[in-house]
Design goal:
Layout (H helix, E strand, L loop, with lengths): L2 H22 L7 H12 L2 H23 L12 H14 L1
Length: 95
């Protein structure tokens, strides 16, 4: 067995051991994972994270719709009818 394989086995065993300790070991009546979850909930407001997540999902859906739209579709009109009429009047005056 080479030295690299032995290092891999030792590091893997350490990682598995740490994972088992974090999920089952008791510190002050709670597991370390429960302590981390508790401090996370105190530091980060879940409603803020949820609102940000919803906003990102909406932006993603909008972008996905804009990208997947076929090229035959007419572009969206961003000019109001009043602005369009004003532009037409200006063009008509120049003729």
């Amino acid at each position: 067995m080479s030295m690299g394989a032995l290092k891999f086995i030792v590091w893997t065993a350490c990682a598995v051991g740490l994972g088992i300790f974090l999920s089952t070991g008791q510190v002050d009546g709670r597991t370390p994972l429960q302590h981390m979850e508790r401090s996370w909930k105190r530091a980060v407001k879940p409603d803020t994270v949820d609102r940000m997540k919803e906003g990102l999902e909406d932006a993603y859906e909008d972008a996905k719709g804009a990208v997947s739209r076929s090229t035959d579709a007419a572009p969206r009109e961003r000019i109001s009818a009043e602005d369009r009429a004003a532009v037409n009047r200006i063009i008509a005056q120049k003729k």
